[in-house]
Amino acid sequence: MKVHAASLAAILAFLGANAAFAADKLYNIWFEQPTKVYSTNYQKGNLFPAGSEVTEVSKSSRKVEFTDPKLGMKFSVEFVAKHHPGVTGEQWADRFLTTKNFAALSGGLTPAEIKAVKAGQIQVGMSKKAVILAAGYPPEVGTVSTKLDTWKYWRHRFGSYSVQFSDGKVTKSEQ
Asked: Do the beta carbons of residue 135 and residue 124 sit within 8 Å?
């Protein structure tokens, strides 16, 4: 079975989970050091694209580890519980991995949304699904529900930005 890294997004249901459920749970991840990535998904460094194939997947309540077979790099993504109140490590990990490729994940998005997702960008007019693929799920410490019209993301440990929605579309992004 092929497993793909999620974007965020946000990323992700994983290994035998319901694939239809997984398609809405994926996101890009950013990393500076592949051996030390956080579930907060700080948006700096290199972008590991949504739908990328990964191998050697290991999942626990504290982290998800996998290998990028194209680069031969091992990744370790640590679950930071205080940034995800109300979400268990298992629930977070289930939003992080899927059996879907990028074409399946991005089904229903416009060409402009797909281009932005591939670049890890949030743009005015994007749907919430596209934002989750581009930037991941916003950490629950700043956004208690994706049903809200304002989501908070982190660039790095001390810098955040907001994304505002109206009728399910981005109206303003401070990205």
From this structure: no
